[in-house]
Each structure stands twice: as structure tokens, then as C-alpha cells.
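To: structure subgroup
Subject: Chain for Friday's discussion

All,

I'm putting the inputs and outputs inline so they're searchable in the archive.
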Amino acid sequence: MNICNREGGRCAEMAMVCLTDFEEYAKEHLSKATWDYYAAGADECCTRDDNLLAYKRIRLRPRILRDVSVSDTRTTVQGTEISFPVGIAPTAFHCLAWHEGEVATARATEALNTCYITSTYSTCSVEEIVAAAPSGYRWFQLYVYRDRKLSEQIVHRVEALGYKALVLTVDVPYTGKRRNDIRNQFKLPPHLKVKNFDGVFQQETAGPEDYGIPANTLDPSISWKDVYWLQSITRLPIIIKGILTKEDAELAVEHGVQGIIVSNHGGRQLDGGPASIDALSEIVDTVQGRIEVYVDGGIRTGSDVLKALALGAKCVFIGRPAVWGLAYKGEEGVREVLQILNDEFRLSMALSGCRNVAEINRNLIQFAKL
């Protein structure tokens, strides 16, 4: 971030200390329509804002005199070791924030040895992403389309490319109402497209568009039977993203999925639902270790990561902060965002008396008597 001394005309580079520094930089430097797109929540943005506020309501119970001279932030997700329990959530259109887009995001996550969930709505193709970061650990986020063949083709592509899991987003039978996108008449600029479907929709480009693909492409009839359908066409583990209740968590386990991402889509779908961190406990209690549970939405500090793990998440995923990192300095910016979270998490762990992730548990959380 450049702070200019007007008299001397000199620009001093300001240190990026925390994730909100990247947010401020992105807001200042992205176009209004792009900033509004990334920042948008549904309707009045209550759930979007509550995702952050909910973390601030949670209090920690630190333990002291525990010899935290050595700490280890490593964990595993779906049996694969990652350097710390923070991955990149699937977010669309990274090329809006930085010219290299998802390729830069992929390189950054590969460098920090963590998990990158590639969005269906990427502005780089899955092939380009793999070529840019060949040894990166990646999952692929999937929507189910009215034309099942579209979904099937992309599943086979990513499986062949070495993606390690499918993340089925289940909270978008229809797109939420994001007021600023409507006001701005948000559209992808002509030089960008949803690269994974390049050429697929050419005959339909004259019609109405919904975030880069023809309107009504998503299938609102999606149901639990589609989980069985997905299992029938792939050997990859299936992780369901968008569960917020214990009832749906139980159904997910019964349908044989390998993981759940507790998520309200960054507050972009149903406004008035719970903050994702507030929904986590009941889902963890229901699942009882049968499958892994992750969470996204509202994570801005290392202590947020600690709180999520204490409440039972195996790993957290960040969405908007990765985009802010891209807007700041591409690959280097995403690396910085991840590194800051890693450093803050390590510090919060030590200050609460945890030497490794196995020592993080619910005893760390103060359940306030209201």
C-alpha cells in the first residue's frame, strides 16, 4: 500500500499487517462493480455481517505454563497433510482482481502447502491451474446443471487432472438477491469468461446471463439423489458445501459423503440464516467424527481459526481475503494473506497453551451464560 508524501512526492510502502489491510487496499484499487461483486451479501447483508460478528462473540479460555517453545500447525484433510488448517474457499472470477487470476492463487497455495478449492466459475481453466502449480493439493467445487452431461464432463476432467476431491455446493438452487450486483448490472468484462465452459454456451450468448453463464443453467431440482448420481460417476471423495443444520448433516453422513463444509455462501444466498461458526457446533455434535467437518465464512484472524478448530472444525477456508490478496499483489499477495493467518494462528495457539492442533478442543471455548 503506497502512502504518498505530497510535498516530496515520495511513496513509502506500508506494511500489510493484518487481513483488513488487504481489504482496504482492494476496496481502494478495484473498480466499484468488482468490489461490490466480491463484497456482496444477499438482501440486507445481515448474515454476511454476522459471519464476522459471531467470531467476536466467542471467548477463549487460555491455559498457561504449558511449554509452548515448540509448536506445530500441521494437520490433515481427507488423509493429506497440509501445513496449517487454512485453505482457500472456492470463489469466482479471480481474473477480475489480478490478471493471472486463479493461476496466481494456485501457485500461492502450492507454495504454502495447503488446500485450494478451485471454483467452477474460474476465469482460468482447470488445465491451466494444474499446469501452473503441478504439485498443489486441490479440490474442485462443482454445481449440478440442468444438463447433467456438463457436470459429468467437468468431473471427469478434474479427476483425470489429479484433483483430490469434489466439493458439491448445495445452497444455490437459485442465486441469492445481491442488490449491488443488480444496481451495477454486473457482468464479466468481454475479455474474461468462465474458462471451464469455454465454447460450451456460444450459441446461447445472446440470452440473459447469470454470472458468466446463461441464466437457468443451474438445476433447482437438485436433491439428495444427485449425491448418489455423483458417486456413480466418480471415485473422488465428495464433500458437501452449504450445510447449516444437524438434520442435513445427518443426511449427508447417511448418503456416504466424506466431508461437510459448514457454509452460508459468505452470506450471499439466504439472508437471515445463522453465521456459519454458530452452526458449526450442532453439526460437529451430530456427525460425531464419522466424517470431517470444515467451515468457511468470516475468518479474518488466526484466533478465528483457533476458535473454529476448538469448536470442532478440521480446517477452515477463506474466500474474500484471498481475493484481497490477489488485488494487492497477485500470487505474492495471496501468499502474504496465508502467511499472516499462519503466523497469527501459531501465536494464538501458543498464547492459549496449545502446542499442536491435536491439543485444540472445546475446553478452550468459554460458553457464556446468557
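Points worth raising on Friday:
Residues 320-351 form the longest helix (32 residues).
The two ends are 42 Å apart (CA to CA).

D.
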